[in-house]
TrEMBL record:
<dbReference type="InterPro" id="IPR003265">
    <property type="entry name" value="HhH-GPD_domain"/>
</dbReference>
<dbReference type="Pfam" id="PF00633">
    <property type="entry name" value="HHH"/>
</dbReference>
<dbReference type="InterPro" id="IPR005760">
    <property type="entry name" value="A/G_AdeGlyc_MutY"/>
</dbReference>
<dbReference type="Pfam" id="PF00730">
    <property type="entry name" value="HhH-GPD"/>
</dbReference>
<dbReference type="GO" id="GO:0034039">
    <property type="term" value="F:8-oxo-7,8-dihydroguanine DNA N-glycosylase activity"/>
</dbReference>
<dbReference type="GO" id="GO:0046872">
    <property type="term" value="F:metal ion binding"/>
</dbReference>
<dbReference type="GO" id="GO:0035485">
    <property type="term" value="F:adenine/guanine mispair binding"/>
</dbReference>
<feature type="domain" description="HhH-GPD">
    <location>
        <begin position="35"/>
        <end position="186"/>
    </location>
</feature>
<dbReference type="InterPro" id="IPR023170">
    <property type="entry name" value="HhH_base_excis_C"/>
</dbReference>
<keyword id="KW-0227">DNA damage</keyword>
<keyword id="KW-0326">Glycosidase</keyword>
<keyword id="KW-0234">DNA repair</keyword>
<dbReference type="GO" id="GO:0051539">
    <property type="term" value="F:4 iron, 4 sulfur cluster binding"/>
</dbReference>
<keyword id="KW-0479">Metal-binding</keyword>
<dbReference type="Pfam" id="PF14815">
    <property type="entry name" value="NUDIX_4"/>
</dbReference>
<dbReference type="GO" id="GO:0006284">
    <property type="term" value="P:base-excision repair"/>
</dbReference>
<keyword id="KW-0004">4Fe-4S</keyword>
Amino acid sequence: MEFSNLLIQWYLQNKRDLPWRNTTNPYHIWLSEIMLQQTRVAQGLPYFLSFTGSFPTVFDLANANEEQVLKLWQGLGYYSRARNLHNTAKLVAYDLNGIFPDNYKDLLQLKGVGEYTAAAIASFSYNEVVPVVDGNVFRVLSRYFDIETDIASSGAKKEFSELAKELIPHDNPALFNQAIMEFGALQCVPKNPDCERCVLNSGCLALQKNKVGQLPVKLKKTKVRNRYFNYLVFSDDNQHYILRKRTEKGIWHNLYEFPLIETVAEVDFDAVSKLIFEEYGSKFKILSIKPLKNDAILHKLSHQHLYIRFFQVHIQGVAENAISYESMISLPFPIVIHNFIEKDLL
């Protein structure tokens, strides 16, 4: 079909040289696909290189401890991906003798591997004829074929997968899948694509109908919740710091942070000071409290906006289980706290 041929020709001339494209090793392809979920290639590439350097094989990753994995993942976000990655590495290494499943159906059984990731590994590693459908593919197909289906709706994935199955060449499914994803990433971009120089412009229905900016359709809006975090940077006579591990479910599970007072709205210094004395005044002799930044840091997550402030709290004596700055910086933190520690703490 002309669509597939033009797409593949464009890809061979324009593709980026990326390390996971120069291999059929399922371990490397799996790593890259997990990392690139919700993440741009430019951001994910250094993490891929760090992980493959630190953990050259799935056995190396399986044998690492979780804190090592989370520390290397620090800043990439969506930390459940890292925990699932580690658990799946253990399963593949210990239960499957280091051998990844060689087909789409069995790959789907791995934790953290959904339809898209299973299709990517199956086609790129084993050349299975199964289409990948991600945000780039939704965009390319919806525009070229003028599909107004809401891509957030329950039936959208099946509809676009069926269409992609008709288009995918059976002699080289991996090349087609790479091509359509790359085309969406580089050419058929979300905003202001260069349609004049597009190899598919003669057949693109959205371009003919002046609908490029309207497609794909996505009606479901993400509800965003505001949260207000007041971090307490306790330091004792040894200039050691108190930390806690977030063991509860939710954001930043198993990462470290300073003791936290969460409030329902942003509160002033006097209110925070009062809360600190109420909660910690019986545990420590508090010598002084001061804000370490004047304004709250806005940290945006997919479903939450966090307004974060840091307060330095000097306490008398030596605090139990407090640790040095040098020990602290080796631990995995949410990136917003890591940046504060590196830039503003000392």
